[in-house]
Amino acid sequence: MKAACLLIALVTDPGWATGCWLARSWRAACLFAALALGGAVAHAEATPLVIDPSATQVDLSKLAYLLEDPQGTLTIDDVRKPENAGRFVAGNTNPGFTTSAYWMRFVVTNPTDKTVGLWFDTGNRTLQEIDLYVVEGQGGVSRQSTGSTKRFSERPLPTSTFVFPVSLPAGQPKEFFLRVRSTGYLGVTVIPKLWQAEAYEAKDRQDEVVWSVMLGVAVALLVVNGMLYGYLKDISYLLYTLALASNVWSGASSFGGFGPTYEFLWPDSPMLEQSVWSLPILPAAMFPVLFVMHLLHFRESYPYLTRVILISMVLLGISIGVQMAGTILQTSDAARVLQIFFIIGAIVWIPIFPAAIWGLLIELRKGNRNAYFIAVGFAPVIVSTFVLAYQGNLGIPMSWYLALAAAAWEWLVMALLLADRFGQEVKAKLGAQAEVVQTLQRSEQVLEAKVVLRTQELSAEQQRTQQLLQAVSAEKARTQEMLHNILPADIAAELSSTGTTQPVRHEEASVLFTDFSGFTQAASTLPAGRTLLDLGAYPGLIPGDDWVLGELWSIAENHIPRTLEVLDQVEGYDPSSDRGLYLRRPILVWHLPSLADAPQGLPTQAYTYQIAD
């Protein structure tokens, strides 16, 4: 309930909601609820706080009495008047976003017998107007003034927060009036404390050491991952480097920052200091989220969430641009507009991280390895953010060391994520290479088997070819022998070399008459008609019923076509027209074991060449 009332009071602050009846009604209702829950707020005289001389610090926030000055025109003399003194009420020293000036009254007593010198710490780095009034003896008032509009060297003390040196007289109450006002885009937040000077300086040195260690870790990670990006050209390392740099910049500057940034970097540029309070928020909101989106493939997997995040970033950039422009221009009464845009920026910022976390949760459910690293890395950051917000709402000192430790944890875990991602990629690459090698080995084995099989096939084919060549050679020799048996040598040679014969004219010729030995005896035993027909110069066959004694050649079936082709040429037969000197005709022949025996067995079909009619 208190948080809700604080939020409504923040949005309906009278500094920029004056004249709105509904806003004033809401604020009154919240104040009433705060009274019911937190006790009565009463007009009262400030009760002096008796300090413990041995304490290193004393918290004054619970003993503060506040007076609001909406116009910012009251002076110290005005607030000390009796009619205004009764307007001081006990309240929270963190009024939040407002353009009003606030007067805070404190009364402190030194119980010792000697004057004590202390430092009055406001716990604030960003307020433009801060004045500390100390009521001295006999009604006199001393004033010390500082604020973010002044150079660092103009501060009462060279500290990161606004601190004033004060002294407490022995045994007497001391009255302080602290006037604060924001004329920029940040609200009023004061955590008043009294410090022993040595204790504050020790705390400041400790803060510097912690900040230096954080910077050292950040610089080392930046250098390493920057070099990895330069070598690998992987955008993941670039986004990590930008996210880390923006995180460091935001921690050093956002809302006043942490550490001695102003003192060491631009101590003479208060305008620049005020500008960069808000500027680092944009890259700090962009690059870490873009880094996560890249690793989880948001654009491909969650296009709607990606659009929501990018639109929020654009609107946040516009809001921050207006804040910076108003700060640089220093226009009159700009605080109201700047604070409105600051709140708008905070509102448009809201969807960025829930959208990113929603996608992260889905990836965790899917078992995404990168999502586990991101969840482990960002969990402490989320917890520390809620803790700081809770502490800020209560007006108690914020645990900045917790935030820094969470940020360092995030940096290291994200660096480990990249290292693990690189290791997984190398592992996958080596696995792919091993698979390729195995595939190549299997292919080589298959190829070797195919080569062996093909070699065997070629060898067998070569053997078959050799056998075929031998058969052809034998058949050719037999054909040559046949040609030489039936034809004169010169004609046989001419047929072998050219495939044809040219007619030769002989002016004179001799005829040789011979007698075949034993022919008469053999012919006497044959039936009538079994004689070779004598046609003159060459013997030949003609159709008839007589018997002819001859020789039967057996030729391999696959060689018959070629043999017939050669014989057709020899006999002058044209198979395409079935014309020539001799005509090739099939006949039936019987086997004759000897010239004295009769034909035996079944007839065999054979080709003969007969004299054409």
Oligomer class: single chain
Estimate the strand proportion: 5-15%
Strand tally is 15
Distance between the termini: 136 Å
Largest sheet features: 7 strands, mixed
Rg from Cα: 58 Å
Instruction: Enumerate the spans where pLDDT stays under 50 for 5 or more consecutive residues.
Output: 1-44, 526-533
Question: Please, how many helices?
Answer: 19
Work out the helicity level: 40-55%
Mean pLDDT: 79
Question: How would you classify the helix and strand content by structural class?
Answer: alpha+beta
Bulk shape: rod-shaped
Structural commentary:
The protein has 613 residues and is of the alpha+beta class. The protein contains 19 helices and 15 strands. The chain is rod-shaped.
Key features?
seven-stranded mixed β-sheet; four-stranded antiparallel β-sheet; 15 strands; single chain; 613 residues; alpha+beta; rod-shaped
In short:
With 613 residues, the chain is α+β, with helices and mostly antiparallel strands.
